[in-house]
Amino acid sequence: MTFPYRKILILGNGGAGKSTFAADMGRAFSLPVVHLDRLWWLPGWVNRTQEEFDALLFRELAKPAWVMDGNYHRTLSLRLAAADAAVFLDIPAAECLRSARLRAEQYAGRTRPDMADGCPERVDAEFEAFILGYERTVRPAMLAQLRESQKPCFVFSSRRDAGDWLQSFQGNKSTFS
User: Fold this and answer.
1) How many domains does the chain have?
2) What's 151's domain CATH number?
3) How far apart are CA 85 and CA 4, in angstroms?
4) What mean pLDDT do residues 59-68 have?
5) Sequence-ordered alpha helix ranges (H) in the chain
6) Is the pLDDT of residue 147 over 70?
7) In a domain, 129, yes or no
8) pLDDT tens digits, one per residue of 68-103
9) What percent of the chain has pLDDT over 90?
10) How many angstroms separate the CA atoms of 66 and 12, rounded?
11) CA–CA distance from 92 to each of 66, 103, 139, 142, 174 (Å)?
12) Cα 104 to Cα 106: distance, rounded to the nearest angstrom
């Protein structure tokens, strides 16, 4: 089967693998990848204003094709309206926290490729609390909004399942797992 989508949202907890999955999907299907963290953050972990972020987001949403990763719940309805489909990486919180900590070690003192320049990787107490509380505070509303959108939504409880789904499309050589 050929991959039928041109605008895809990738959602999930911090450390779930959203950026990796988005990059893999972008490579597999020659789609540009938009990391919302790169739009939101300025160097030194300073956030843009909502107005600045929204202007950048609207510019990306207007493009004919993209894979967009990030939660940013405030703008989810706008992104869903523009998207053809969504992928929700429903990875257990303990696994997400482990992955976030490993990523912080891997990029210690450096900025990871999917983050805005000048934002060296970190996992602080606030981010850990977000990850551990995500299943009860963010996940229910996000899944409800995905259901209400009536857009195709693919929910995966493991990276392996998500990677297998990507590999099921003709010509794709996904390595996500």
Assistant:
1) 1
2) 3.40.50.300
3) 10
4) 98
5) 18-29, 36-40, 50-61, 76-82, 93-106, 125-137, 139-149, 159-167
6) yes
7) yes
8) 999 999 999 999 999 999 999 999 999 999 999 999
9) 92
10) 17
11) 27, 17, 11, 16, 22
12) 5
Long-range contacts formed by 118-124: CB under 8 A, 24+ apart: 118/42, 118/43, 118/44, 119/37, 119/41, 119/43, 119/44, 119/45, 122/45
What is residue 112's predicted lDDT score, i.e. its pLDDT? 93
In a domain, 173, yes or no: no
Rounded to the nearest integer, the mean pLDDT of the chain is 94
In terms of pTM, does the model score above 0.90? yes
Say if residue 161 is exposed, middle or buried (CB neighbours under 10 Å; 0-12, 13-18, 19+).
middle
Question: How far does CA 155 lie from the centroid of its chain?
Answer: 13
Residue 1 in any domain: the answer is no
Q: Both tokens of residue 129?
A: 């609390």
Of the listed ranges 22-31, 37-46, 56-65, 162-171, the one predicted with least confidence: 162-171
Q: Look up the domain containing 89 and give its range.
A: 7-167
DSSP string, 144-165: HHHHHHTS-EEEESSHHHHHHH
Residue 174 within a domain: no
The whole-number pLDDT of residue 136 equals 96
Q: What tokens appear for 3 in the block?
A: 């991959």
